[in-house]
Amino acid sequence: MQAIDLHVHSTFSDGTLSPSELVELALKSNLEAFALTDHDTIDGIEEALLAAKGKDIEVVPGIEFSTEYKGKDIHILGYYINPCNETFNKKIVEFKNSRETRNKKMCKKLKELGIDIDYDSFCALFPDSVITRAHFAKYMINKGYIKSIDEAFDKYIGDDAPGFVPREKITPSKAVSLILKTGGIPVLAHPILYKYSDSALETLVSELQRAGLKGIETIYSTYSNSDEKLIRKLASKYKLLITGGSDFHGTNKPNLSLGCGRGDLYIPAKLLSTLKKAYLKGFVPTKSIHSALFFDLDGTLLNDEKIITPITKALLYKACENGNKFIINTGRPLASSFKIIDRLGIGDITDYIAAFNGGIVYDYKNESILEKVTLKKDYSEYVKKTAKEHGCHFHTYSDYEILTEKKTKEVEYYSEFVGLPYRMVKDVIEEEPTPYKFLIMNFDHPEKLKEVQAIIEKDLKDKVFCIFSSDKFLEVIPIESGKGNALKFIMKASGIKETHSYAFADEENDITLLKAAAKSVCMINGNPKLKAVSDYITFRDNNNDGLADFLELFS
Predict the structure, then answer these.
(1) CA-CA distances (angstroms) from residue 509 to 80, 207, 470?
(2) Alpha-carbon span 261 to 266, nearest angstrom
(3) pTM for the complete prediction?
(4) Chain segment 387-438, per-residue pLDDT in tens
(5) Is 98 exposed, middle or buried, given 0-12, 13-18 or 19+ CB atoms closer than 10 A?
(6) CATH number listed for the domain at residues 377-478
(7) Which fold has domain 3-89+172-281?
């Protein structure tokens, strides 16, 4: 069986390998997954996720909070942390500032103890890292003041040493609460290391369990058999998840290897499945309630080959068989959506289509348009004028084709992308005065799109949305349109309460959709802006059945 490691540090805190290097080492070590749990920072998560993309390794986004409990340093691990969550990131900045203040004071103390150290020069030696005491130890070793990390702590920077400065910390309970509020799973790290008596340790676990603690690190590099037995007993008594990790730091802890600790550590992959179930627990719908499931197409329901993978398709059918509604909510034209449905053979389960980013709501079963929202003619004229002045391609649509004033590489690309023909006309607005939307592109100078967006948003404020549906497509739609408004309209039309709406998406133009849904899911391959407003993030991307874990809950 493959193993996992749920406690790993990178150069973004006090490890010696970058997140990318950890991914490569995890692959070489035949791990199924590892959790990046840097101290008080989530800055390395995006690099790790990017490095793992398309590879046979799963990265669990995590963190390890340093907290204080009755004068003792207690660590709380957080799993499935959303690295784009604004509230969480704000707290992280506060912790970082607290750490910086402490480190400056430690530099001053060490200087008074005869160590030649300047804070700014010292930090420059460890760029992109959260400075910890391990960095101070490494500095003193390199400068010849001491010979080992243990000596550094004993002589200078240990808790009772003359160069140590405590920093302002949050309590373990507050760390647990913060992790829960942002959708993560809080776990007590390496409880044996705190050297509590059995009764004192149980008091801590009991208090944290009442605060919402979900797990306890039961398998750990330095545990004896009796240690593990004790923690398993506590986990059972307080109904806590069992997790495990090596606490890998690279050469900062040279006796610990990734995945196997001191050589005999084994953390079974089944623990990760249990962790995922805990993460998804709040998402599970009541089985007796039929829900409305809204899916973006490109980058979400469709993989990069523009198909629904067999596993995802089977689960989608099972969800529909159980009475749930299947709704496509896309930026594509309606005619393009029809072609996708026909090509994939999913017409028998499709209930509604919201196309043109909410410009049309279509009842697929009854073959009727329920709602249309279009741009006013003067808005269209302004959008066309702005795009033209900035040298950008622009086009709009009839019901079954793309309307363009020029044949460009952009329109040829888009025509192939959506599977619709384009027709050249003298004036797109004369041809279609009130279109569902405009689409603007510029392959040679993509930076122009941001300029056009800023101008349109300024001059047509509260009249249009100006959004990116990918890095190539800038879309302009009526303010009354949008995927979120389409969701609300469909919920009323279907007779299903909005509290039973679920949305799955990946791009910036999906923000209103996720905000409107009762429960929202962003693909792990999704836009950071979308992740910032989503309730959940998938474990895998659109090419690797990222929706499967969520669709299973409706099956």
Answers:
(1) 24, 43, 8
(2) 8
(3) 0.86
(4) 999 999 999 999 899 999 999 999 999 999 999 999 999 999 999 999 999 9
(5) middle
(6) 3.30.1240.10
(7) TIM Barrel (3.20.20)
